């Protein structure tokens, strides 16, 4: 869904949301929000006891990537408690990721592309159970202290239309042609791996329009609209997810996916609203309830998150993760690639049961930063929304790496 990846978690610490139907003068026309069930709530957590983490390894460097933060060997994969159904989903997603996994550069310092070749060759024709596959070709490791925090995301479906209509007038924009990506590493070795986005005015590169300017109409009249949403709150939450479905008036569905964003920093307003005493329920549902009840104030709060997402229509499989492959509900997660290799399996043991088991790192997100920070994908539909919207679990995480990687790491 990505978003060069913008999959953002729907938890108190990472969530951002938009305003109600009040839009600045000259911007999008206000629309009437559709009726919603008054009992819309996050799913009730299923409690679980998380396995203890292992003693941490000594930090081997600056700790900015997994290899220098410290890595220790974990227990045997076959001895881990796993859900066999979810393990099978994870193995299938691992198989899907293999073509990119063996080619990509791993910025975590844990693996090299060739390390994955044996497992990727074997999974093509594997007929046994998933647990045995992972155990045969990989070993588990813990990065840092192994203490994991997991949130959730999903693929929302909101009301929309392909052409502007009365009551369906919130623009869904494609990438503007004047939005420029700059690889700073091309100018200085000290800036390798760092990128910025902006636009050129005269002879200067400046920041691109922020959310307030865009919602105020700065992109209007340029032919960038690929569709329209009925409700600004719904659309902003779709932006947080990075992709979603527009339910069209004729009953059809238009799927849209992340193309890029404006280069502005992401600000999660869940914590902001909590700190200001505006809400006590930091779930997605709690934040939405406040925004709908206080549309003018909600608009101002929303504009404190200057990041804005641009979309493209998806016509094939999807939604797509940062690797360019479809993400799968209850199998795919978004991670920080400095600490978890994209394509690697991850095992979670958390204080709520739903996220426990094996997942595949197939995505990234603007708010998903740090070691053992995981954003779990739950698919589409009411259950996915309910689980993702209230997901905030803590526990232990292990990463599965090829056996050759452990040998090179001296484990």
Please tag this protein with its features:
disordered N terminus, 11 helices, 411 residues, alpha+beta, 2 domains, 6-stranded mixed sheet, Barwin-like endoglucanases, Ribosomal Protein L25, Chain P, globular
**Oligomer description:** single chain
For this structure, the CATH topology of the largest domain is Barwin-like endoglucanases
Share of β-strand residues: 15-25%
Count up the helices: 11
CATH class of the largest domain: Mainly Beta
- Radius of gyration, CA atoms, in whole angstroms: 21 Å
Going across the biggest sheet, name each strand in turn: 3-16-13-15-14-17
Region (Disordered): 26-50
EC number: 4.2.2.n1
GO cellular component, one term: outer membrane
GO molecular function, one term: peptidoglycan lytic transglycosylase activity
Chain-wise SSE layout:
Layout: H1 66-69, E1 71-73, H2 84-101, H3 117-123, H4 130-137, E2 138-143, E3 147-155, E4 157-161, E5 170-173, E6 180-183, E7 195-201, E8 204-206, H5 211-215, E9 225-229, H6 232-241, E10 243-247, E11 253-261, H7 269-275, H8 284-293, H9 295-302, E12 309-314, E13 332-334, E14 345-350, E15 357-363, E16 373-380, H10 382-389, E17 393-402, H11 403-409
Parallel strand pairs: 3-16, 4-10, 13-15
Antiparallel strand pairs: 1-2, 2-17, 3-17, 4-9, 5-9, 6-7, 7-8, 10-11, 11-12, 13-16, 14-15, 14-17
Helix pairs in contact: 2-4, 8-9
Protein name: peptidoglycan lytic exotransglycosylase
Region (Disordered): 26-50
EC number: 4.2.2.n1
């Amino acid at each position: 869904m990505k978003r060069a990846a913008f999959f953002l978690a729907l938890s108190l610490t990472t969530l951002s949301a938009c305003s109600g139907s009040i839009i600045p003068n000259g911007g999008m026309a206000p629309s009437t929000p559709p009726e919603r069930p008054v009992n819309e709530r996050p799913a009730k957590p299923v409690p679980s006891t998380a396995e203890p983490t292992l003693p941490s390894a000594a930090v081997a460097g600056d700790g900015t990537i997994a290899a220098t933060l410290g890595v220790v060997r974990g227990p045997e994969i076959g001895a881990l408690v796993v859900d066999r159904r979810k393990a099978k989903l994870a193995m299938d997603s691992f198989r899907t990721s293999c073509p990119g996994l063996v080619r990509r550069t791993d910025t975590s310092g844990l693996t090299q592309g060739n390390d994955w070749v044996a497992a990727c060759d074997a999974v093509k024709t594997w007929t046994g159970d998933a647990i045995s596959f992972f155990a045969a070709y990989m070993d588990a490791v813990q990065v840092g202290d192994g203490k994991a925090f997991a949130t959730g995301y999903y693929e929302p479906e909101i009301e929309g239309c392909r052409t502007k209509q009365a009551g369906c007038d919130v623009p869904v924009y494609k990438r503007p042609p004047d939005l420029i990506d700059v690889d700073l590493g091309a100018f200085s070795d000290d800036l390798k791996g760092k990128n910025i986005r902006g636009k050129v005015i005269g002879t200067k590169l400046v920041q691109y329009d922020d959310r307030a300017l865009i919602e105020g109409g700065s992109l209007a009249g340029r032919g960038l609209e690929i569709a329209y949403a009925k409700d600004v709150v719904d659309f902003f939450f779709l932006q947080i997810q990075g992709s979603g479905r527009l339910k069209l008036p004729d009953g059809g569905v238009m799927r849209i996916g992340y193309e890029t964003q404006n280069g502005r920093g992401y600000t999660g307003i869940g914590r902001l609203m909590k700190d200001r005493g505006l809400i006590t329920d930091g779930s997605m549902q709690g934040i939405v309830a406040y925004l709908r009840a206080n549309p003018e104030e909600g608009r101002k709060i929303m504009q404190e998150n200057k990041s804005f997402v641009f979309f493209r229509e998806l016509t094939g499989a999807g939604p797509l993760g940062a690797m360019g492959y479809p993400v799968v509900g209850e199998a795919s997660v978004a991670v920080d690639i400095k600490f978890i290799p994209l394509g690697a399996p991850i095992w979670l043991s958390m204080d709520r049961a739903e996220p426990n088991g094996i997942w595949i790192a197939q995505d990234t997100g603007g708010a998903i930063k740090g070691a053992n920070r995981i954003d779990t994908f739950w698919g589409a539909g009411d259950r996915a929304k309910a689980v993702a919207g209230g997901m905030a679990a803590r526990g232990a995480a292990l990463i599965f790496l090829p056996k050759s990687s452990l040998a090179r790491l001296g484990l």
